[in-house]
Amino acid sequence: MDQTALADTPAARCAYYRHTCDLPAGVHPEIGRITVRAGCIGAITMPAALGERVQDYLTEHHIDLGPIICHERSKRWTFLTRPNLSDDVRLFAELFRLNVSIVPFGGEIALPSPEDVSARYRHWIVAPCNGFRPSGSSIIDAVRSCSGAQKR
Q1: What CA–CA distances, in Å, run from 150 to 34, 49, 91, 140, 147?
Q2: Contact 34/123 with Cβ under 8 angstroms?
Q3: Is 86 a domain residue?
Q4: Which of 138, 137, 122, 28 shows the shortest CA–CA distance to 68?
Q5: Per-residue model confidence (pLDDT) at position 118
Q6: Are strands 122-126 and 101-102 parallel, antiparallel or unpaired?
Q7: Which residue in 58, 67, 77, 110 has the most C-beta neighbors within 10 A?
Q8: C-alpha pair distances (Å), 57 with each of 79, 102, 145
Q9: In angstroms, how far is CA 143 from the centroid of its own chain?
């Protein structure tokens, strides 16, 4: 990611996300948090250890990586995806057993902001540099492969 494009203000970083990365982000001015709502993008959150295995799996299978956020304190990763997963209770239950969740439509997704660096809240594992995001189903398939889960 071009660090000069991410001038260390929430507004500048948000503008970069909006214009370069096609993420319809907004800033909560009172705290400087940058967020985007699930709907035009998807998001899948999982424990960091599983996230690392999923990232390795995708790389080994030549599947393009999209943006991945690390949540330092909770030790979780969020994969930003295309919003192509169905609202399926069985899928949610399957993922729940793996400690994986799909951010529901309208859910708020926090993106790394300048204030997060010093507080160690969140940072990019794979930073966005354009509007590409992988299919949500490709991430779910990788989760299943990495966790030994069978599709139900």
Answers
A1: 36, 19, 11, 11, 9
A2: no
A3: yes
A4: 122
A5: 59
A6: unpaired
A7: 67
A8: 14, 19, 8
A9: 14
49 Cβ partners below 8 Å, 6+ apart?
75
Q: With H, G, I as helix, E, B as strand and everything else as coil, classify residue 103.
A: coil
Q: Which two tokens stand for residue 117?
A: 């660096």
Tell me whether residue 44 is in a domain. yes
> In the chain, how many domains are there?
1
Cα 119 to Cα 114: distance, rounded to the nearest angstrom: 9
Query: Tens digits of per-residue pLDDT, 48-85?
Result: 999 999 999 999 999 999 999 999 889 999 999 999 99
Mean pLDDT of 6-11: 74
Domain that holds residue 105: 3-147
In a domain, 31, yes or no: yes
DSSP code of residue 23: -
Given the DSSP bridges, would you call strands 68-71 and 122-126 parallel, antiparallel or unpaired? antiparallel
Kindly report, residue by residue over 78-116, the tens digit of the pLDDT: 999 999 998 899 999 999 999 999 999 999 999 998 876
pLDDT at 7: 57
Mean pLDDT for the stretch of residues 32-41:
92
